[in-house]
Design goal:
Length: about 180
Amino acid sequence: MQLPERAGNPFTKSASGGRTISAVMLPFFVVLPPRGFGVLTTTGRKTGKRRRKCIHAIRRGDRVYIVMIRPTESAIRTRHISAWVLNIRANPTVELRLRDGSFTGLARELTEPADIAHAEEIYCRTVNPFDYVECMFHRSGRPTRAKIEELHRSWFEHGVPLVIELQAGSQAATDSS
């Protein structure tokens, strides 16, 4: 059985489809990502090259919450981990381009139940205007706040939650998402 957001969309059924979507969005998001999204730059663990990925990113103060979305139900069972998360495990220093600027930070996977619960509340309950477009791509019917929150909750529950702690001085830390 596939996750509901994966059922009818050929681009979201596989990891390669997700990479394709990110590659199409990347030129636009580098210039000005929509609120609630960003461009994450990691360092390749094998090559040392800079790797960029469009991500759903929710900022609260000096923390940004992101989730690695697993491509399919079978990947959930096999514990699929995307290359960008493996890059973070090897080198947690990242760059993040958000609507309000570019930042340097340290990324880490969330493991403590209290941290996960806090991140889930922020990640799943925050809805931005571009999320309605995203929802149309992943779910059938008219996008609603409830559908968007359900979509984000599905990603959070089946994915890998991470936090990026923005470094002081990389740019002014304001509270936005």
